[in-house]
Design brief:
Mannosyl-3-phosphoglycerate phosphatase; 3 strands; three-stranded parallel beta sheet; globular; 3 helices; Rossmann fold; 33% helix; HAD-like_sf; 90 residues; HAD_sf; alpha/beta; single chain
Amino acid sequence: MGRSADKGSAVEWLVKRFTALRGRTPLSLGLGDGPNDITMLEAVDQAVVIRGCHELAVEPRNTSLYRTDATGPTGWAEGWPTGGGEMTAV
């Protein structure tokens, strides 16, 4: 993979492809727990940072951001829209 290959680029490609095929832009949601997820969390409409079991900073620039209180699978369940996380419609 080249330097431009990251999760954020993949999300942007997927949204463009969906839009071209379906004629409308989808609402995108991204969940991540580490620094390697930051580009993805910045590329989606709604971002969820799962609290990690590490001291690494995960600080995406996204105005629609939710941070979970729980870690691991419980944090992922909390971050999913039906799991208790507060999501805002865009």
